[in-house]
Amino acid sequence: MDYLMYIILFLSVIISGVSVLFINISSKSLKLLLSFSGAFLFAISVLHLIPEIYLSRTENVGIYILIGFFAQILLEFFSEGIEHGHIHLHKHDHHHNAFPYAMMIGLSIHSFLEGMPLAATEANSHNSLLTGIVMHNIPIAIALMTMLLASHISKKNAIMWLIVFALVTPLGTFVSYAIGQNLLLDLSIYFDKIMAVVVGIFLHISTTILFESSENHRFNLIKFVMILLGAGIAIILM
User: Fold this and answer.
1) Can you tell me the distance from the alpha carbon of 162 to that of 23, in angstroms, rounded to the nearest whole number?
2) Domain housing 174
3) Is the pLDDT of residue 171 over 90?
4) pTM of the model
């Protein structure tokens, strides 16, 4: 078991989320980071994850990819699209301390599933996938912390929920590892199908980010460069 991987997944969320307390991170910078991470995730899915899933010869694997793709649409009804940097600040007339529980649950399910492929990928694609997930979780953590603070809960409670979120992706990786090693029931026969669902989620998240990278259908050179950079690094890491 790669303990360093779990530490990286946890600390990347904590450090980026807590940075909101000390640094004013502009929405423009957040969008540029999202463009990079979206392109990286998309490239990793196409170059590594999808070929590996099809090599497993799982029957009707494409259907499970589609299930994951459309399942993410349902999750976003709860998470409100925070996975791709959307920050929705709600005004409450009577409950100033209202906590966005639905958003937290939807985001946690997404992040739990997102961590699962890390326990299954081959060595040559493991590091690049880990990098992609970390790069994706950094803007999510920033957006999450921004929303938590805007919901008027205390900084202490906001950090507590950030810690909970930081634990979810490593938990997904551990559960996936346990399934693969037959340590958690006997679910190994469903392992490749679960991975296909996760790939579908990756495809939805990454393509949504890329589609949104062109605001009002205007060409943005800096965002285009970030997209090329993300995809290029994924290719280099093959």
Assistant:
1) 17
2) 33-85+98-236
3) yes
4) 0.81
